[in-house]
Amino acid sequence: MIVDSAIPAAVRPPVSAVQQWWVLTVRMITPTLRNGELATQIVGSIVFTIGYYLPLKQMMGAVQPLSGYAQYLTPLIVLQAIWFAAISAAFRSATDSVQGINRRFRAMPIPALTPLASRMTASMYRCVVALIVSVACGYVIGFRFDNGVLGIVGFVVLVLLIGAALALIGDLIGIATQNPEATAPMMLIPQLTLGLASVGLQPVERFPEWIQGFVRNQPLSQWVYGLQALAGDSSGNAPEATFAVLGPGLAWVLGCIVVALALHTWVSRKRRSE
């Protein structure tokens, strides 16, 4: 067969970074619909609600300043659900690393940030599910938004910012450890420690004096203050949504994101050189 050299060879059309991001994102979201991960996320939010509210309502309900313990507790339930969603980010990142998928991506014509962007998008999908289910559970036990539309928008934005920070930390842990089995304990221990020693369960004055400084200023407590302020309360006793109340929580979020991104860049460069 004679091939006409004048006919140009077929040229593969370029693939955009957006298309690559979308394909990689679907790759991580689709399995959650059939492997039980989405159901686990939903059940986890329900369990957090039942596990905190039922045992503590009688003990803590009378010592908190809001109209009901559900109004006081729901921000913590939301944060615990979001943190639980971030564990999946750590597990997925570690799994991709140990299976060599990240190394394969580095050998392909894919922008360096595309795999991370797709993992973060999948993590935010889990965070949105966690937010919706946990707020719905809060409504069942008596939580209500009482600060207008702007308060609701601010509540959602702050939760998703926190979710992005936690997911980025989880992704960093996964890449750094390359050990899927180790990611859950490394994420759960801080979650339980900060959750139990936070103002999300009871006012800071109810803790022993020697630990009140830590309880008041640790990130989870500052996020609870911010979410309580944005949610509002019919009693008028919720913190006001001022910069003095929201600022520390935002500073913790942005600080976590900046530090996690810096460490992520360093670890990724180290992995590429190996």
Summarize the structure in words.
- This protein is mainly α and 274 residues long.
- It has one domain (35-273).
- The protein contains 10 helices and no strands.
- The protein has helices at 17-29, 37-60, 69-98, 101-106, 114-141, 148-177, 180-196, 212-217, 219-231, 243-273.
- 38% of the residues are buried.
What is the fold's blueprint, element by element?
Blueprint: H1 17-29, H2 37-60, H3 69-98, H4 101-106, H5 114-141, H6 148-177, H7 180-196, H8 212-217, H9 219-231, H10 243-273
Helix pairs in contact: 1-5, 2-3, 2-5, 3-5, 3-6, 3-7, 3-9, 5-6, 6-7, 6-9, 6-10, 9-10
Summarize it:
Helix content is 72%, strand content 0%. By secondary structure, it is mainly α.
Overall morphology: elongated
Helix segment tally = 10
For the CA atoms, what is the radius of gyration?
22 Å
- Main β-sheet description: none
Which class do the helix and strand fractions yield?
mainly alpha
Runs with pLDDT <50, length 5+?
A: 1-5
Estimate the strand proportion.
Answer: under 5%
N-to-C series of helices and strands: HHHHHHHHHH
How far apart the termini lie comes to 47 Å
Number of strands: 0
- Portion of residues in helices? over 70%
What is the residue-mean pLDDT, rounded to a whole number? 85
What number of structural domains do the residues give? 1
